[in-house]
Design brief:
alpha+beta; about 40% strand
């Protein structure tokens, strides 16, 4: 009798994060308000998160677990583009990994944020979680080159933060002085592993075979009319 078992391993390649920003003396000397300080902190965090996501997309793109579906180029109004993205998400769920969009984590390019925000507003969703509420699942954004929308089956994928140094901290923040430019350099360092190499081992008699499961689907809106 054949025997099936599943296992999820860490992709061998780790993502090393190094995000740096300048803290200018001139700005510090004029003082921060609570609002500007909070906004600067949020901008730094947002850049770090999108850098992590962009690096993760690079890792996933070269992984055996990725299945790519090519779809027509997004055209028309913001709402039309968002509708096309939504339709593609619902049409490309896999019953083996989750039949609902809520069974997947979504990673989209930052250029699609505006279209999805517009659709969420038209559907009556508001606030900073409007798109999440519309989708019924988490969505993250990446910067750099647009490589498509990624659907990650939640039961088989995750991010694991490793310790960059030996002090037990997952994220390291380094502040150093740059006297030449009259500023401080704030650098955020980290190491992330993508846990997503899902495979099924099929045992048949005295032998066995391993089949990699495509638990990440990429939707590429690049198809043009012939």
């Amino acid at each position: 009798m054949d025997h099936f078992s599943s296992v999820v391993d860490t992709i061998e390649q780790a993502i090393l994060i190094s995000e740096q920003t300048k803290l200018w003396d001139a700005k510090s000397s004029t003082g921060f308000t609570q609002g500007t300080l909070q906004q600067d902190a949020m901008n730094i965090c947002e850049n770090v998160v999108r850098t992590i996501n962009a690096r993760m997309v690079d890792v996933l793109e070269s992984s055996k677990l990725l299945k790519t579906v090519e779809l027509p180029v997004l055209t028309g109004s913001l709402t039309a583009k968002a509708d096309a993205i939504m339709d593609a998400l619902y049409e490309n769920t896999e019953s083996s990994f989750g039949s609902e969009v809520s069974d997947y984590g979504i990673i989209a390019h930052e250029s699609q944020l505006k279209a999805l925000s517009r659709l969420a507003a038209k559907q009556g969703f508001s606030g900073e979680d409007a798109i999440v509420d519309m989708l019924g699942t988490d969505i993250a954004y990446y910067n750099g080159e647009d490589k498509g929308v990624f659907m990650l089956a939640k039961r088989f994928t995750a991010l694991s933060f490793g310790c960059f140094r030996h002090d037990g901290e997952n994220i390291t923040v380094v502040l150093s002085r740059d006297g030449d430019s009259q500023s401080h350099d704030l650098e955020i360092l980290g190491k992330v592993f993508v846990v997503a190499e899902a495979a099924t081992t099929i045992k048949m008699g005295t032998g066995s075979a391993t089949a990699v499961l495509p638990v990440v689907k990429r939707l590429k809106f690049t198809k043009t009319e012939a």
